[in-house]
């Protein structure tokens, strides 16, 4: 690979490929889909996928023609979890949110300019939203978890992000920089973020930022459900509940 592409560019493209495959788990993803998602030519995407599979970072289901994350990533992730994983601390809060609200509850982690869902707990309400699931990525500012995290980042970091994020093309005019700034202001005032069906019509979400030991928003707790479950009367109650659990989890992380 390194003989074909400059080294730094190879690393960036490998990162794109791995994130794309990760976002398609557990069903996996085809070579052409990876090429479209990353903007790579199909031969380049296939070459990178095959090389990663040869090293154990990916697996290829030849019958289905789909790529999956491989055993080496599992082993590396197990080691990295000792430093980065807070799911053991967050599990009781995600479970409590699902039990107390009846909605699906989540923990998402910030990774660069994205959030990644790392923990999900189904609620008791029989009609569910499947917008968010473990491994699903959204850019910051998209969905309630990403808006909650972005809202409590330093203002200069927010403006740098918005200057190049270009979210409108994929997520619609509701995600223009100006509309996101309005969402940030509302989130800062309330303390929690609300996504009124902007990703999938009829699927609402609410989220609250969780802070690391340095006081930076690094994770978010969130809940999702159908629109009728997020009435104007109920949202403040849900918001206070999210904030209570987010604060308690932040305090655990600081210890």
Describe the fold and architecture.
This protein is an alpha+beta fold. 49% of the residues lie in helices and 19% in strands. It has 10 helices and 8 strands. It has helices spanning 7-23, 31-38, 42-54, 71-84, 87-101, 143-151, 155-164, 168-171, 177-190, 235-254, and strands at residues 58-61, 66-69, 104-111, 114-121, 137-139, 193-195, 203-211, 217-226. It has a 6-stranded antiparallel sheet, with helices on both faces. α2 (31-38) crosses α3 (42-54). The N and C termini lie far apart (44 Å). The mean pLDDT is 91.
Walk me through the topology:
Layout: H1 7-23, H2 31-38, H3 42-54, E1 58-61, E2 66-69, H4 71-84, H5 87-101, E3 104-111, E4 114-121, E5 137-139, H6 143-151, H7 155-164, H8 168-171, H9 177-190, E6 193-195, E7 203-211, E8 217-226, H10 235-254
Antiparallel strand pairs: 1-2, 3-4, 3-8, 4-5, 6-7, 7-8
Helix pairs in contact: 1-2, 2-3, 5-10, 6-9
The gross shape turns out to be: globular
**Residue share in helix:** 40-55%
Strand order of the largest sheet: 5-4-3-8-7-6
SSE pattern, N- to C-terminal: HHHEEHHEEEHHHHEEEH
| DSSP E strands, number | 8
> Cα distance, first to last residue?
44 Å
Share of residues in strands: 15-25%
Residue ranges: pLDDT <50 for 5 or more in a row?
none
Counting helices, strands and paired strands, the structural category is alpha+beta
Report the mean per-residue pLDDT as an integer: 91
Largest sheet: 6 strands, antiparallel
Rounded radius of gyration (Å): 19 Å
Total helical segments:
10
């Amino acid at each position: 690979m390194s003989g074909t592409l400059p080294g730094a560019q190879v690393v960036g493209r490998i990162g794109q490929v791995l994130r794309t495959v990760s976002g398609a788990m557990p069903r996996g993803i085809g070579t052409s889909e990876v090429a479209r998602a990353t903007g790579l030519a199909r031969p380049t995407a296939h070459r990178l996928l095959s090389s990663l599979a040869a090293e154990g970072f990916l697996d290829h289901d030849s019958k289905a023609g789909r790529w999956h994350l491989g055993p080496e990533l599992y082993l590396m992730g197990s080691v990295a979890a000792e430093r980065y994983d807070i799911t053991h601390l967050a599990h009781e809060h995600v479970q409590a949110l699902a039990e107390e609200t009846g909605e699906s509850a989540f923990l998402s982690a910030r990774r660069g300019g994205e959030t990644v869902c790392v923990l999900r707990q189904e609620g008791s309400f029989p009609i569910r939203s499947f917008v968010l699931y473990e491994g699903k990525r959204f850019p910051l500012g998209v969905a309630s978890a990403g808006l909650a995290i972005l809202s409590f980042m330093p203002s200069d970091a927010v403006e740098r992000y918005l200057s190049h994020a270009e979210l409108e093309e994929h997520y619609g005019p509701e995600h223009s920089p100006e509309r996101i700034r309005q969402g940030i202001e509302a989130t800062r005032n309330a303390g929690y973020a609300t996504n009124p069906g902007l990703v999938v019509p009829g699927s609402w979400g609410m989220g609250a930022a969780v802070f690391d030991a340095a006081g930076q928003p690094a994770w978010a707790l969130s809940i999702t459900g159908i629109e009728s479950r997020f009435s104007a009367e109920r949202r403040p109650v849900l918001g206070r509940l999210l904030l209570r659990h987010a604060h308690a989890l932040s305090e655990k992380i600081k210890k």
